Amino acid sequence: MARYGFIINLDRCVGCHTCTLACRVWTYEKNEDCWNTVLEFNSHVEKRVIWIPYVCVQVRDPVCILGQQPPPCVRNCPSMARVYGDLDDPADPAGKIMARGEARPLPSETDKPRAYYIGRLPKDIEAQLPEPSKVLPRKYIPLLHIPP
Amino acid sequence: MSVKFLCPYCDQEFVTKMVLGDHIKSAHSDIIESAKESIGYTFCDACNQVPYCGIKVYVKDGRIIRLDSWENYPNSPLCSKGFATLQRQYHPQRLGYPLKRTTPKSLPDPRFVRISWEEAYNTIVSKMKEIREKYGPEAVLFYCGDPKEMRPAVSRLATVFGSPNFGTESSTCFRAAALASQLMFGLIVLGNPPTRDTKTVLIWGTNPAWSRPFDMPKLFDAKEKGAMFIVIDTRRTPVADKLADLHLQPRPGTDDALALGMMNVIIERKLYDKEFVENWTYGFEALEEYVKGFTPEKVEEITWVPSDKIVAAAELFATNKPGTLMAGVSTLTHTTNAVQTVRAILTLVALTGNFDIPGGVTVPTYPLPFRSHDMGDPDFIMEKKKIEMKNKRVDKDYFPVWAEIVHEQIQVNLLPEYVREGKIKMAILFGANVTIWPQFQEYQEALKNMEFVVAVDYFYRPWTHNYVDIVLPAATNYERFEPFIWFGRKIYVRKPVVKPYLEAKTDWQIVFDLAVRLGYVEEFWGGDTKKGLDFILQKAGVTIDEIPIPDGKVIPPPGPEEYKKYEKGLLRKDGKPGFPTPTGKVEIWSTILEKYGYDPLPVYKEPEESPRSKPDLAQRYPLILITGSRVPMYTHSKWRELSWLRDLMPYPVVNINPEDAEKRGIREGDLVMVENAHGKIRVHAHITYLVPPGVVDVSHGWAMIPEAHVNLLIPRVFDPISGFPTYKAVLCEVYKA
Ligand code: SF4
Ligand code: SF4
Q1: B95 to chain A: which residues are within 8 Å by CB?
Q2: Does the structure's ipTM exceed the value 0.85?
Q3: Which of B167, B464, B613, B633 lies at a CB distance of 3.0 to 4.6 Å from B412, suitable for a disulfide?
C-alpha cells in the first residue's frame, strides 16, 4: 500500500514561511487549522540558525485540497525544500530519496513515520525538537469579514 | 460608524461579519456549494518588488476563496505575504469610505467623518487651486509610498499641475544605489541573478530568501551546477548559511572599505581585466593610487573581516569568471557614505570585466521602451517638462547631484525642512507612512503644519493619518486592473477579480478623477485610465485588450541579445561606442561628483557614528545597531494588521547574539531597552546567531507599538550626495528593562 508523506531537505529550508501561509490559505476555507509550521533553532555547536518545518502528516492526513498537483506547501516552496509522494515507491521522487537510506524521521516518531528529513541537522538541535502534536496545528484564525 | 451586515441571500441582519459568515456557511451552504468557481489572475502588492509576482485567484460567488502562484509566470512562487493578502482583502478595518477630519490639525483627535467622493474631490481640487494661486503649483508635494503601482499616474498629475515636486519612498530605498550606478555607467546596473554561464555569484548585502524568494530557484540551480557563492553580509542570513562558499561579515557601514580592500588585491596581483580597464574606464590610475592604502590587513582592522577571506573573495571574483553581482539596494545605502559605497562595489564589476558578458552583470539589449525603476515611461510622466521645471525642485540646493541625475523624482527626506522653509504647503500622499523616517515626529509635525494633506490608503493608520485632512479608501490589487507590467519583452495585464470593497477606488482612478476636475480632461483621456495605459503601450505597438490573460504577450525584439554592447554603440543614444556618461567611459572617477565638489573616487568614509569615528560614544554604547532588514512575514511596516502573519512574529524584537545576550544577563523573550544617544525604546530580545557579536538588529515598521519605534534611535544625518538616512550604522546599548 502506498505510504504518502514528506521528505524535507534541511539544507534548503530558508525559513521563509511560505509553506505555512500556503497551508493556511488552502485549509481555512474548511474552517481548518494550519497544519504546517516552521520552527527556528540556534545551534550553539555550529553557531548558526536552523529552520525545521513540521508538516500535517506527522499528526494527521493532509487537509488541503489534494489533486494531481503536489500540495500547496510543496509547490510554493521557493527552495524546493520539500517533496510529497509515495515513500515506499522507488519510482516516486519521494520514494527514490527514501531508497537512498539517509532520510530520517523526527526522533520522537516511532510508529510508521510519514515525514522524513535529509540534510544537516546539528547534534544539539535534535534534543530540542518538540513532538509534532505540541506544535501543530497553528490554530484557526478566522477571516473576520465577508463583503456585504 | 455603525454598519449592519446584511446576508446577501436572505437579507437577515447581523452585528458582526463573523456571525454573518457562520450564518452563510450554515444556512446557505447549498448556494455556496452550487456556485461556480472561477479563476482570475492579478499581481501581488504585498511587498514592493517590480515587476510584481503573480497570483492565481479562485473566486466563488463574488468572493475570493483561495490563492496560488500564477503558473508559468516569471516571478514564482508567491511568498508568505502574498498568500496573506487574502486576509487583507476581507479585513474588517479596511477603509471603505472617504473621510474628512472635523477638528483643526492642532488637536490630536482628528474626528474623521464619512463624506462622499464628490465632497472629497471638490475639497481637494479647490485646495489645490488655492495653494497654486497663493504659492505656485510647486508648493504641492505629490508622494507615492507603497506599493509602486500608482507612481506613473501621480507623477503625470504632478507635472501637468506644474509641480516638479513628486517624490516616493525610493528616497530611502533603491534610488541612491541607482544614482551611484548612473554616475558610473550612465545606466542603472545593479546586478542580476546568475544565468547558465555564471561561475561566481557575489551576493552583497541582500538576503533574497526573505526579500525576493522567487530568486531562490535560480540560486539553488546555479549552486547545483557548480557556481561559487561569495556572500557579503554582516548577518548569517539563510542565503549565507545555505549558499555561501565564502561568507564575509563586515562591520555594518564598512562595505566601502571592504570593496576597496578587494580592489587592492585585484590591482596589486594584476588580476583585473586590462583590456576593459584601459579602453572603457575613466580614472583607473587615481584609483590604483588610492587603494594602495587598503591592504587586506588594514581592511581587516576596519571591517573585522579576516584578511585571508578578503584575498580569497577578491581572487575568486576576479578569476572565476563570469561572475555576477546581486547587491542590496537598501542595505548598502543606509549609511552616511551611501553612494560611494555602491560605487565602490560596482567598480569591482568594472575592474573584473564582468560587465555585460554572458553570465555576468548585464543590461538588456532591447528593453521595452518603459522604465521599471519608476514603473513608467518618460513621456507619460512628461519628464521633459519636469526637467524644464528643475529650478522649482525643493531638493535642488540640498542634493544637487540627485537633482541633476534623478529627473523623475525629488529627494523627499528633508520634508520637515521643506515645510519649515515654507516651500511645501500641501501634500497628496498615496500609501504614505511618515514613520519610515528617522525622528519621524518631525515628519508628523511637517504634515500638521501644511495647509492641507490628503492620504490614500487601505487602512486607517493613525501615525500618519492623524495628521492629515482627508483620507481616501484605495482598492486592492484584487479590485484594480491598472497598471500593466513587463518582464524583459513580455507584457502581462490583469483584470479585477472582485468588485471594490464598499466605496474604495483604484489609485489610478482617483488621480484621473482629480485631474479631470482640475480641467485636465485631454491630458487624462477624459478620466479613462485604460486609455492612459494604452498611451504607454502604443510604444510597444499593442493595447491592453490585445494582451491575453494569463499568458501575457511577447513583443519580439528587433534582433538577438548582444553582449559587450559598449563596443557596438548600443548603450548610447548617439550610437557611438562607450557608455552614456560625460566621458563616455565607466567613470570610476566621477566627473559629475567632481563638478559638484564631492570626492570623485569611490572613497571610504567611516559612518558618522561608529566605534572608529566616535570611540568615546562607543564606550557607552558598544553595540552597533542595524535596522530595516527584511523578515519573511512582513514587508517593512506593512501587514501587522494580518493575524495570519502576526501569528509568526507577534512583536518587534532586538536580534542579539548569544554571546552579547549572556554578557548582559538577557534571556530569550526578555523585555529589554535599546538605548543610544538619540533615545531609547523597549522591545523583546530574540537571541540568535543571525547577528554576529557586537551587532544588534532591531525590527522596524512597528508604529502601532510606540515604545518600540526604532526610528527614535536613528539620527537625522544623511549621506551628503543622496540624502539617504543611516539606518544601518549607529551605536547603542541593550539592557534588561
Ligand atoms: S516554504 Fe520551503 S524554504 Fe520556505 S520555510 Fe517552508 S520549507 Fe522552508
Ligand atoms: S499537505 Fe499538509 S501541510 Fe501541506 S498544505 Fe496540505 S495540509 Fe498543509
Answers
A1: none
A2: yes
A3: B167
